[in-house]
Every structure is written in C-alpha cells, then in structure tokens.
C-alpha cells in the first residue's frame, strides 16, 4: 500500500507544475496579441478613384561639383480610394542640359494609403557642365493627373 501512496503523491505534485506552465503559455499568448501593431484604418483624401500625391514637385540641387554623384528621390503616395497603377516606368525629359539617368520605382501599384519612391543617381562629367533642367514623368491612372511630372534643376560646375 505504501507504493500506491507514493504514486498518488507523485501524480498530485505534477499538477501544480502543469498549471504553472499552462499559465505562462496563456500569459505569453495574451501579451503577444496585446502588443501587436494594429493596422490603422486609412481614410482617403479623395474618393472615386486613385489620386497621386508627392512630397515635392520641384527639386533645385543648386550648384553641384562635376564628377560627384547626387541621389535624387521623390516619395509618391496614393491618397485616393482605389489602386493607383503606374502605367509605364518613369522616364526623364531633358528641357536643358543632357544625359538623363534612368529612374527606378519601388512599386508599380499602390493601394489606397500606400507609398513608394522614385529615385536615381545623377552625375555629370567634365564635358557636361552647366545648367540642367529635367522633367521626371510618372505615367499613371490618376484621372486628374495621368502624366505626373517633377521638375529637377541643377547647375554642374568645376
């Protein structure tokens, strides 16, 4: 009989351990769920379609030293209530100067509230000095601005 009593005592003493481990697991799950980032609902600034907005429409780099590289970037945001689709890769038009680089875009589609970046390095060599006036075109499906345009000015000196 004494062996049965020992067996019961051993079995009873494991329950508090199981309860403690179970409590720690439940507490961990509760804390994990409580501290997760909650998605903030997006309220569109315009309704009835996509709408492209940027942090700036003109960048004037001023005087830049020939041979140096400048990284240019623009942030684009869809402030509408429908997906914004960039219908072509951004391209650069030369108004004055020469040698446009090829821009890159982070994403070709933006859901409402999403952002992306258009960027490119800009460098002029010795024979490319002087004023440069470039237009960065962003073709898209925004009904109010299908060919969104940034103005980029610079003056390359020795």
Largest beta sheet: strand ordering: 1-3-8-6
CATH topology of the largest domain: Immunoglobulin-like
Number of strands: 10
Reading off the top of the CATH hierarchy, the class of the largest domain is best stated as Mainly Beta
Oligomer: single chain
Alpha-beta content class: alpha+beta
**Separation of termini?**
101 Å
Number of helices: 1
Largest sheet: 4 strands, antiparallel
Please name the CATH architecture of the largest domain.
Answer: Sandwich
**Helical coverage, percent range:** 10-25%
CA-based shape: elongated
Estimate what percentage of residues fall within beta strands: 35-45%
Verbal overview:
The mean pLDDT is 89. The strands form 3 sheets. This protein has a 4-stranded antiparallel sheet with strand order 1-3-8-6, with no helix packed on it. Helices cover 21% and strands 40% of the residues. It has 2 domains: 38 residues; 106 residues, Immunoglobulin-like, CATH 2.60.40.10. It is elongated and about 85 Å long. It is α+β, with helices and mostly antiparallel strands and 158 residues long.
Task: Summarize, please.
This protein is an alpha+beta fold. Helices cover 21% and strands 40% of the residues.
Helices and strands in order, then pairings?
Layout: H1 2-34, E1 52-54, E2 58-65, E3 69-78, E4 84-85, E5 91-96, E6 104-105, E7 109-110, E8 115-123, E9 130-139, E10 147-157
Parallel strand pairs: 2-10
Antiparallel strand pairs: 1-3, 3-8, 4-7, 5-9, 6-8, 9-10
């Amino acid at each position: 009989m004494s062996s049965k009593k020992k067996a019961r005592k051993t079995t009873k003493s494991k329950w508090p351990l199981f309860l403690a481990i179970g409590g720690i697991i439940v507490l961990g799950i509760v804390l994990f769920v409580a501290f997760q980032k909650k998605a903030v609902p997006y309220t569109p600034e315009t309704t009835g379609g996509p709408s492209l907005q940027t942090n700036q429409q003109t960048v004037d780099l001023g005087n830049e030293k020939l041979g140096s590289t400048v990284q240019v970037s623009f942030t684009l945001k869809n402030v509408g209530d429908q997906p914004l689709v960039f219908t072509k890769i951004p391209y650069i038009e030369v108004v004055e100067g020469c040698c446009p680089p090829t821009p890159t875009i982070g994403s070709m589609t933006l859901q409402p509230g999403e952002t992306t970046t258009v960027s490119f390095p800009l460098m002029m060599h010795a024979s490319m000095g002087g004023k440069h006036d470039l237009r960065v075109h962003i073709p898209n499906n925004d009904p109010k601005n299908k060919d969104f345009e940034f103005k980029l000015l610079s003056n390359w000196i020795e």
